[in-house]
Amino acid sequence: MKRHFRALGVPLLLLLTVLLEVFLMEGTALCQASQRDLDALSKASVIYIATVRKDGNQSKAAPVWFTFTPDGLIYIQTRPDRWKAKRVRRGSPMIGWIGSRTGPAFIAKAEITSDPLVVHRILDDFPHRYLMVRLGWHAPKQAMFDKGDVVAIKITPVHDLPEGFASKPGSPAPSLDAHAANSPG
Q1: CB of 77 within 8 A of CB of 151?
Q2: Strands (DSSP E) along the chain, which ranges?
Q3: Which tens digit of pLDDT belongs to each residue from 42-79?
Q4: 3-class secondary structure per residue, 7-27
Q5: Quick one: CATH architecture of 31-175?
């Protein structure tokens, strides 16, 4: 009996270690979109995103095409020389509005990724989501990612922003910390 337990002990310990690593990595694995946002994402054709400038203020919100996972990770693509890519590269959070400039709002962590699964999801989902892509206009191609002409950005929602939260370029951006964002002052 001890022999069987010992034989299972090492693989079980390794499995638990990997699971803890996945769920505790920088706290991002536990973040996900709320049910409100998942419902809105399933109906929306665009999201409006703003990044945070070096001075801590919001940029102007711009509409982007997107795809998302069942747990609410959002994937977009952009050229690497765009401000959103430059700011994300430096660690800027992202503020998003789903469906319209007045839609449900959230604040998120964002990162440029070369993960082949993310790129594949964009390449596979965009033609299904967007007629212009099906017709060949603005269609992302694997070669564009390979050459660095476009980059994939993974957006991980951290928390919802209050109903009616509006884009105000040049005004202070909300905090990634939900407690700071909800406290008065």
Answers
A1: yes
A2: 47-51, 62-64, 67-68, 74-78, 94-98, 105-113, 151-160
A3: 999 999 999 999 999 999 999 999 999 998 999 999 99
A4: HHHHHHHHHHHHHHHHHHHHH
A5: Roll (2.30)
Do β-strands 94-98 and 105-113 pair in parallel, antiparallel, or remain unpaired?
A: antiparallel
Mean pLDDT of 141-150: 95
CA dihedral 74, 182, 23, 123 (to 10 degrees): 0
Q: How far apart are CA 97 and CA 37, in angstroms?
A: 9
Q: How far is CA 176 from the centre of its chain?
A: 13
Neighbours of 144 (CB within 10 A): 16
* Best CA proximity match to 126, nearest among 116, 113, 137: 137
Dihedral (CA of 118, 166, 102, 163) sign: positive
Q: Which of 160, 163, 55, 59 minimizes the C-alpha distance to 108?
A: 160
CA 72 to chain centre: 8
